[in-house]
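Protocol check, entry for the methods section draft. Step 1: assemble the input record (protein sequence plus ligand SMILES). Step 2: submit for complex structure prediction. Step 3: store the structure tokens unaltered in the notebook. Ligand used here: calcium ion. Step 1 record:
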Amino acid sequence: METDLRLESSLWVGNKRYLAVLTGWHLKWTEAEKKNPDKQTVSVPVAEVVGVEEGRVEILPHKSVEDTDRDFTVFYVKRSSSRASAGLLWRLGRTQFTCPSRVLRDQWIKNLRTAVKTHSPLRPHRLLVFINPFGGKKKGRQIYHSLVAPLFELAGISSHVIVTERANQARDHLLKKDLTGFDGVVCVGGDGMFSEILHGVIGRTQQEAGLCENDPAVTLQQCPLHIGIIPAGSTDCVCYATVGVIDPVTSALHVVIGDSQPLDVCSVHHGLGQVRYSVSLVGYGFYGDVLAESEHHRWMGPFRYDYSGAVVFLSNRSYRGTVQYLPADPLLSSPRDKTRCLSGCGVCAKSTERLFTNTSDSGSQYSTYSGEWVSVDGRFKCVSLTCMSSSCAKSPLGLSPSAHLADGTGDLILVRDTNPLGFLKYLYRHTTTQDQFDLPFVEVHRVKAVRFSLADGGEEAEDNAGLSGAMDGEDGAYIKNGKRSGSQQHLAGRAKGQTMTSEDKTVTPFMCGLCCSKAPAVSVWNCDGEILPFPEIFCKIHGQLVCLYARGIEDGASLRDGTEERVECNRTCTLPR
Ligand SMILES: Nc1ncnc2c1ncn2[C@@H]1O[C@H](COP(=O)(O)OP(=O)(O)OP(=O)(O)O)[C@@H](O)[C@H]1O
Ligand SMILES: CCCCCCCCCCCCC/C=C/[C@@H](O)[C@H](CO)NC(=O)CCCCC
Ligand SMILES: [Ca+2]
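Step 3, stored output:
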């Protein structure tokens, strides 16, 4: 195949002559000027070619075609580093080549198009796109039509676009409608919109496989539809942690070239009730309270989290509970090994091997209930479980900087009750490169499953919490987006009427005057930005349950000689601590 596609000839770019070579894997062109000692080679992996068009073509700001019969235009991925983020920005590169003859031009186009098909088997042909017009700064529609649609069109992708009119419309569509012919689903919105797609895609796959998702003992089936995220939300944590930048063009290009990043998913169970899924944060205490508080202030937009964070911090709450966890194999990796999961990560690759070459391996990472459960109880400022680093603009290294996207484990972070200054130090370290786990009241464990129960009085609290409403009635969806009245929302998941224990009374009650006057005994769970109003849960990590159109975070070291030539540097790198 490779030798059939190989092509080498002189081509002109503007008035300069280049020697161009197509090897099958790469398209390269080098200035042919003999006198120039610094002549540079531009090398584009064929897998990163977006499109090859006849003539001299532009697509931005508007499409124009000058149909000359010796010219062709190649569009491809071009990288530049981003000052603001961890990863690399992708832009659409474009070079217009002139050939000595029309015959040679047609040969170049044919070979390039065949090479692209051969080397990127996962490129989508047909996509289902959901746009949340109300996510983040409410720019979803504009972002899609001005930045994303032209790229999909250039790549020959046909899209069926649905602008949502209500919450959970995308999830319901994925659960019930005919999805034949679609290669993937794209969401334009934030983490909440991604969560809808995640639930729809996982639910549909299990339905079709005849599996009961609510049963934590079931091994779920991997989802065949890829998911693309075009960031247009408030936090966009899933996009940030899987691409390294919040940039619609970068994300659209990952979709176009059919990149594939498997992702671990945590299923969250409460009794035999409806399961919830998380990829980023399952958090009790501080993060649950911030989310519950922020629901009162949706009108503030993305700033609601900063405001609510300050309010909840000042209220200085902590909660009793018992956390049980099933440790992952410590020989494979550790949350404190100071490495980062980057594009082509070796730890995740080994996990793929284990997952797909040895499906009946009962002693592996993926056998949920093997090993010894460990139990920890006490008072916690927060209990967080994350399947990935959960990095975002606020915290560029994330909740757990060394967590892996696709290793089949999650990181459990226990922050015990401490004084406000200590907790502030813990939070502040999320914004710097200082180790947030290097504090005496913090512990972190790499785990396969977690169980949380309330300490004394737990049963009473849970019963009441259950009554306070796990479902919002009509379609069994969980509470989100201010559907409850203010006071109900605030109490969601708390033990109604539960009195303070003597231990509770040693903790400062709400001081802000914006909420109620007593410190509640029970918090709520934050499941990727959605409130789960029951405190007692069981969580299980499902290795690589879904695949995104992404490739993990590319770091600056993978760039050499400007923005166009890429050196393969696919490994797990050491954190800059
Ligand atoms: N048309 C709609 N009207 C109201 N809510 C919607 C609509 N479409 C989707 N939603 C819901 O809006 C919620 C929030 O949307 P989204 O995640 O896109 O933005 P965000 O909350 O600003 O960002 P982030 O989740 O990153 O913080 C989602 O949970 C989704 O279910
Ligand atoms: C003194 C400075 C203190 C600064 C503290 C910064 C701490 C940042 C930690 C970052 C944690 C991100 C966790 C991701 C959560 C998302 O799945 C979820 C959905 O978008 N977002 C929230 O729940 C929104 C709630 C986020 C709460 C911060
Ligand atoms: Ca993981």
